[in-house]
Structure formats: structure tokens, C-alpha cells
Design a protein that fits this description.
The complex is a heterodimer. By secondary structure, chain A is mainly beta. Chain A has one domain. Chain A has one helix and ten strands. In chain A, the strands form three sheets. In chain A, strands 8-7-4-9-10 form a five-stranded antiparallel β-sheet, with no helix packed on it. In chain A, strands 2-1-3 form a three-stranded antiparallel β-sheet, covered by helices on one side. In chain A, strands 5-6 form a two-stranded antiparallel ribbon. In chain B, the strands form two sheets. In chain B, strands 3-2-4-7-1-8-11-10-9 form a nine-stranded mixed β-sheet. The two termini of chain B are about 15 Å apart. The chains are: A mainly beta, B alpha/beta. At the A-B interface, strand 4, strand 5 and strand 8 of A face helix 6, helix 7 and strand 5 of B. Zinc ion binds next to loops of chain A. The site of zinc ion has 8 residues of chain A, from loops.
Chain lengths: ~160, ~375
Amino acid sequence: MKKTELLFLKEDVDIPYNWAAGRYGSLFLTRLRDEGKFIGNRCPSCGKVYLPPRVVCGPCFTPPEEIVELGDTGTLVSYSVVNYPFIDPETGSRRPIPYTLGYIRLDGCDTYLSHFVDETDPAKLTPGLRVKAVFRPREERTGRLQDVLHFKIVD
Amino acid sequence: MAQRVAIIGFGQTRHRSRRDDVNGVELIQEAVRAALEDADLTLDQIDAMIIGNMDHFEGVNYVDTWSVDGTGAYMKPLLKLTTGGTTGTTLGIAGYHFVASGLFDTVLVVGWEKNSESDTTGAIITCSDPIFDRFSFSGALPGLAVEASAYMKAYGITQEDAARVTVRDRRHGANNPYAHLRTPVTVEEVMNSPMLSWPVKLLDICPRTDGAAAVIFAGERKARRLAPQPAWVIATSVRHDYAYFHDIDYTRMHTIEGAAKELYQYVGIKEPLKELDVIELYQPYSFAGLKWIEALGLCPPGESPRLLWDGVTDMGGELPINPSGGVICTNCIGATGLLRIGEAALQVMGRAEGRQVPNVNLALATGFGGAFWSDMMLLGRRPW
Ligand SMILES: [Zn+2]
């Protein structure tokens, strides 16, 4: 058979989505936007404090109804300095690199928050570091987790 | 009506970084044909089929219908399953359930992926929660790197220890004519490869692959009649814990611990290092070849580097891991778990050729996906 020219069909059209944050998610995000505060909720059965607050504790299958105010400081549990290019489905273009992805346990909380840390030198990062949230100015906040710009190392 | 089940056939494509010469349906067709040839069956002898992949890699969201020419499921019962990284192992477990129920006697399951058709990381990010995870979640590679950084700190594990895992799998992959990456590498080469997501380097992580795999399950009477040595399904297990990536306890691999415990208790395994003969581990990056074999109970937490450096998990060692080269050598995601099952079946059947471990009685295949979820299939030379 004669060698065939192999073709591709390119597709780069977005389909917009509207995701519901739900009652607890909306409460969390409005407090973040309006007051610059993190909240979680506590499971009455196992005592675990969840962030984001949620309608059910998975392991207990119990509603964690008690709202708990959390601090804006916490501990870096784990991290990675990301330095390879990829398309961010949030924007459709490349996410700027390098940056540091961090899992942070806010004081008073049992689960982690997935966010960015303002330090990309692996030698200056280690699990256990104390970190603090840096918020965007009030007028720039829109009720998303990105209302927090990043976390900075405080010790 | 319930019956014992065995694997009687396995087929796979020659895995490559891209297969521009075929579309997805045509790729699927290659694996289905290979599995039928392997089992010496015709399509007429297949009662039902199950297909799976991760839809967002190809952007085709009705794969069961779309692929019917390639699966050969024309006018047959057909089901689609997709569970992220575990898709392939889920397919195998579902095939086992279909036949074990007695409702079907021969079931063909097929997993496939054309990772070349989209940005793998971008597509994987769409697996995460759109409100609380997605803006910071960075795909599989950093998602695993956060596990590595916590594990290194907890047990004093080094990047060289992890590199030794890659060295093993790349050496094994050279024995597998179907593997995507078939050239051995050294510890130095791993250490000098580009740092993609600290502490994970290019040679610590699996490739993105175009490929497909198909496995045929049969009920006991048919398996005995059709296969000289079937690979009997002894038991399967599945464990999920959390949905958000930021909820996970990265110091331990709880889902592997739970899934392995269930299998071991079922068959009475007390010392898996001694009692298992081979493992096909869904190990998407090198550090998993340390931490996750601790979760499998092969050694206490933090002591796996010794097993690696002593060659215990190499071909010829006490418990060879990934004779096929594993996920580090081939990762066509929707097929990856099914490759573990198919390769483990070949080991039990004694038909793994250049990558055969001698005298395999028990072979363990594992799957990994989602937010650190695990599932497993234990295969044996004799029915349980
Ligand atoms: Zn609870």
C-alpha cells in the first residue's frame, strides 16, 4: 500500500460549566471572600474537623453540622515544586511554572487544604514548616479558593 | 449458579508513545483480536464484553457505543466502566464478577488509551473537584510527588533509593517485546534526569502511552476444556477512602493495606514476601515501588530500600516485581491495570516467555487510581 499522509482533527473549543458549591461550600467561600476567614465543620461522631466543610463525614456517614472557625496559619504537610509544562484546564493555556503545590493543615483542622506556597527552592521546604495564608485585597476577592494568593513560610 | 473463574486468554498491542496510524477503535480491535487468538476462540464464543478507558483523554464520552466495531460487541451485551487509573483492574474484577455469577460463561474485557490525543496532565486535572482541588491540583505527577516528599521525610528515604526501583523496572522492561520503554537505565541516569516535580524526575515517572489490552475470563468447565493451564482467579479486593486529594493521609497507603489484608486473610497468607511468587504492581512512579510494597506487607515501613538494593524484587530474586517492566515502562492508562492482570495471568500460565518467573503458583496484580484508591486480583495455578 502507498504510504498515507496521516491526518489529525484539532479540537480546542471549551464547553462552559457551572458547578454548584452547595450550602456548606458557599458558606465557606463567602466567609473567605467577605471576612478573610477559613471555616470547617466537625463530625459529631468521630470528632474530625473538615475543610472544606461538607454535608457528610465519609467514614462515619454522619453530617458534621458544627461549624468551626479555623486560623489562617498552619503546617505544611507535604509539597512538590512543580516544574514541567502542562495545559491548565481552568484556563486552556499553560500554567506558569515553577510553583509549589502544598498540602497545608490549618490550625484546628484535621484535613488539609491544597494550595500554593510562595517558595520554590526545595532546599527551603520540608514537611512540618509553619505557613500563613496571604489573602488578595478585599476588592479582588470573588468567592474562590484563589482569594488566597498563596501561603508564606513564617518560621 | 455461582462458579469458579479463570483467565484463558490475554492480548495486547505493541505499546508506543503514539499510534498515529490507528484511531481508538482500530487500536481496540488489535487487542481484541490478539486475545481471541491467544485463547484460540472466535467472537461467537464470547458471551459478553466490558470496555473501559478514561474518557477525558480522548474526549469521546460514549466509548461503549463508539467502539463497537473494534470490540466486536455487535449484538452482544456490552458495558462501559471507567474508574480512573484503576479502570483496567476494575475491568478485570467486573469480568470476574460477570462469569462468577454464572450469567455468562466467557467474557472479554478490553482496556485502552490513546494518551497522545490530549494533554495528559490537563485531562487528569479534570478528575479533581472543580471548586476545592482543581485550581491547585497539578495532575498525577505532582499528586504523587507530594506523597514522596512526606514519605522521604518520615523514613529518611533518598532519591537514590527510588532510582533503584526505576533501574529494576527498566531492566525488566527490556525483556518484554510489548513494552513502550525497552532500554535499561542506571541510577546515575535517573538522578541526572530533569527534575519535573520535586522530588520526582523524568526517569522516576511512567511514560504516556498509546495501547490496549484484552483479557478473556471463562467459567470453570470451559476454562478446563479450553486452556492447558488457566490462571484461576483466587480473590479480588477494592478499597476507596477519600475523594479530595487534600484529605489523604500521605504517610501511609491505607487502601493498599486494606485491600492486601483482605486477600491475605482470604487465602491464609501470613508472609507475603515468602508466599507470593510474583507481583505486577501498578506503580506509576519509582517511590511507589518502595512505600507501596511496605503497604503490601513485604517489610516494615521504611525498610523497603533494603529489599530493592539487595535485589529481592529483581528477576531471580525472592519475589520478582514487575517482570513486564510495569507502569514505569508502559502506561496506556485505561489498559494499565488490565496489563497487570494479563501479565500476572501469563506468569501463572507459564507463558511469559523472556520475562517468565519460574514456578509461579500465586501472582498478585494491583491497580491504583483516583485519590490513592487501590484494587487487586490474586491469580493462582489451582482454583481456590
Ligand atoms: Zn466522622
